[in-house]
Amino acid sequence: MPSRPPPCPALPGLLLLLLLLLLLLRPARPGAVGAAPFEPSWESLDARPLPEWFDAAKFGVFIHWGVYSVPSFGSEWFWWYWQNQKIPKYVDFMKDNYPPDFKYEDFGPLFTAKFFNASQWADLLQASGAKYVVLTSKHHEGFPLWGSEYSWNWNAVDEGPKRDIVKELEVAVRSRTNLHFGLYYSLFEWFHPLFLEDKSSSFQKQKFPVAKMLPELYELVTRYQPEVLWADGDGGAPDSYWNSTGFLAWLYNESPVRDTVVTNDRWGDGCICRHGGYYTCADRYHPGHLLLHKWENCMTIDQLSWGYRRDAGISDYLTIEELVKQLVETVAYGGNLLMNIGPTLDGTISAIFEERLRQMGAWLKVNGEAIYDTHTWRFQNDTFTPNVWYTSKPKEKLVYAIFLKWPISGQLVLAQPSGIPGETEVELLGHGQPLPWTSFKPAGMVVQLPQLTIHQMPSRWGWALRLSSVI
Ligand SMILES: *[C@@H]1O[C@H](CO)[C@@H](O)[C@H](O)[C@H]1NC(C)=O
Ligand SMILES: *[C@@H]1O[C@H](CO)[C@@H](O)[C@H](O)[C@H]1NC(C)=O
Ligand SMILES: *[C@@H]1O[C@H](CO)[C@@H](O)[C@H](O)[C@H]1NC(C)=O
After folding, report:
1. What is the dihedral sign for C-alpha 191, 193, 195, 201?
2. Which atom number of ligand 3 is nearest to the Cα of residue 329?
3. pLDDT of 97 over the 70 cut
4. Mean pLDDT, residues 123-129
5. Which parts of the sequence belong to the Glycoside hydrolase family 29 N-terminal domain (predicted)?
6. 64 within 8 A of 49, measured Cβ to Cβ
7. Number of Cβ within a 10 Å radius of residue 200
8. Structural domain of residue 195, as residue ranges?
9. Residue 459 in 3-state DSSP?
10. Measuring CA to CA, which residue among 84, 82, 103, 102 is closest to residue 93?
11. Stretch 341-361: mean pLDDT, rounded?
12. What is the rounded CA–CA span in Å between residue 262 and residue 267?
């Protein structure tokens, strides 16, 4: 009789089982934001805590640059306004300045970026006081500023500059500054044949996301590791068409930036202000009240365009007073400000944008303590004195009152915070000496500002008081 094989020894079997259990139960990514892997559903993705650096940053610079910077006329929506909407201003501009058979694609080779020096941009961004930058890696015209494998012959490496713009800026920003590097990406493209085909199927077909948008996004993230991914342009299609939740689950679970990346809310029709990372809600968004969710006010210094346009006049550009006001109001309501500039086709940043950026930097150098790393306060603005905005640092028991008009009386009345005699100190940022204050009835305080000539002012356009231990 053949002998029976010995019974399977129990011990190794148990060990194996234990090992298997351990493998199954181990946290997928120890130390990552929200250790559990995210599911491709909004319920799961929306629950991801926003990486902390973003709320602390408060101020970023948006850069709109692409083939539309060649005509640099009217708007970065040039192609659409000219060929789809047939707006006379654009049609006439082309008639007057270009041969009759000139196509938008012919602007591609003219996009030379001749003087583009990413190090100069990076140094200017640093000087602006911004903590992050968001570059349009591809706008609705579909021209990627990197050598996309999925946009053959219509990208900045094969055409125009013949340079990897995204790479050059990424390297310069990461090596010369402490800014976080971010990328804007338009999901749809106005005239891409596959997108148009999908659209005419009421987005039942999914050729464009499968062949173009999804592979491009994966490529963009793996190659350049952006820490902000600013989606835009859903083209009227739902997030299921874009496979947004599938992509974001990969971004949060597996991508090289899974722990630090932040995204916005423009991931498909109906997503805005509801799903994704932080909310943008609308261009130039201003809720006018506190939100329970982190948000960003994206706006542009040239009030009429995001891309550079040669037909802008000085009154079209927001003044530094207006920009400081935007920043202060936005931060007081808990938002971040993303302030846009549009470089020229040569890759230069016009003197007006440069001046605004340097002015913001000069203001933040003195008053940044009242902006960066702050939280909202009980009140967002003063109810007695107009143009006074509040931020706070609860751990340090500090409240900041930022005032945009220097009172003629030299006395600033603050009706919201009340000082504690013998405890509360008031200081003007950049001035450095404690200021006298008295109580204001029934609540609040009156701060005696120092008598300063215009040359002694620590900053212009706005000032900040640091108030300690107020109630
Ligand atoms: C680019 O700008 C940097 C910083 O201003 C400068 O040092 C460098 O020489 C510039 N490169 C070229 C090619 O002009
Ligand atoms: C869409 O996302 C799902 C995950 O939800 C993924 O399995 C699938 O491969 C994605 N499709 C494409 C085309 O990337
Ligand atoms: C200031 O705050 C009050 C209430 O706290 C509000 O009614 C008013 O609209 C605010 N002013 C501005 C300019 O937001």
Report:
1. positive
2. 14
3. yes
4. 98
5. 36-369
6. no
7. 10
8. 42-370
9. coil
10. 82
11. 98
12. 13
If one counts every other C-beta atom within 10 angstroms of the C-beta of residue 171, the result is: 16
**Does pLDDT of 30 surpass 50?**
no
Residue 6 domain flag = no
Choose the final residue of a domain: 370, 401, 416.
370
Residue 243 in contact with ligand 3 by CB distance below 6 A: no
Q: Is 144's pLDDT higher than 80?
A: yes
- Cβ of residue 383 lying under 6 Å from some atom of ligand 3: yes
The model's confidence at residue 270, banded by pLDDT at 50, 70 and 90, is very high
pLDDT more than 70, % of the chain: 92
Question: What distance in Å separates the CA atoms of residue 176 and residue 433, rounded to the nearest whole number?
Answer: 35
Contact 61, 167 (CB under 8 A): no
pLDDT digits (tens, 9 = 90+) for 1-11: 444 444 444 44
User: Cβ distance 391 to 428 under 8 Å?
Assistant: no
Cα(442)–Cα(286) distance, integer angstroms: 31
Q: Closest-lying ligand to the alpha carbon of 287?
A: 3
Residues 320-343 have a mean pLDDT of 98
Is residue 264 located within the same domain as residue 410? no
| Mean pLDDT, range 271-300, rounded to an integer | 96
Residue 272 falls inside a structural domain: yes
What number of other Cβ atoms are within 10 A of residue 411's Cβ? 14
Same domain, 432 and 346: no
| Whole-prediction pTM | 0.92
Q: What separation in angstroms does the CA of 275 have from each of 14, 46, 293?
A: 45, 6, 11
- CATH number at 447 reads 2.60.40.1180
pLDDT tens per residue, range 437-467? 999 999 999 999 999 999 999 999 999 999 9
Alpha carbon distance 453, 121 (integer Å): 35
Residue 150: Cβ within 10 Å count: 15
Best residue for ligand 2 mutational test, from 38, 44, 219, 243 (most atoms within 8 Å of Cβ)? 243
Single-letter residue type at 57: A
Task: Evaluate whether residue 1 is within a structural domain.
Answer: no
The whole-chain average pLDDT of the chain stands at 94
> How many independent structural domains does the chain possess?
2
Q: Does residue 199 sit in the same domain as residue 67?
A: yes
pLDDT at 28: 46
Q: What is the mean pLDDT of residues 36-62?
A: 96
Say whether both 357 and 423 belong to one domain: no
Q: Is the pLDDT of residue 31 over 70?
A: no
427: phi then psi, degrees, rounded to nearest 5 = -135, 140
Domain-located, residue 17 = no
What number does the ligand 2 atom closest to the CA of 250 have?
4
DSSP annotation of 302 reads B
Question: How many Cα neighbours within 13 Å face the side chain of 197?
Answer: 9
Neighbouring CB atoms inside 10 A of 303's CB total 13
Residue 364 and residue 419 share a domain = no
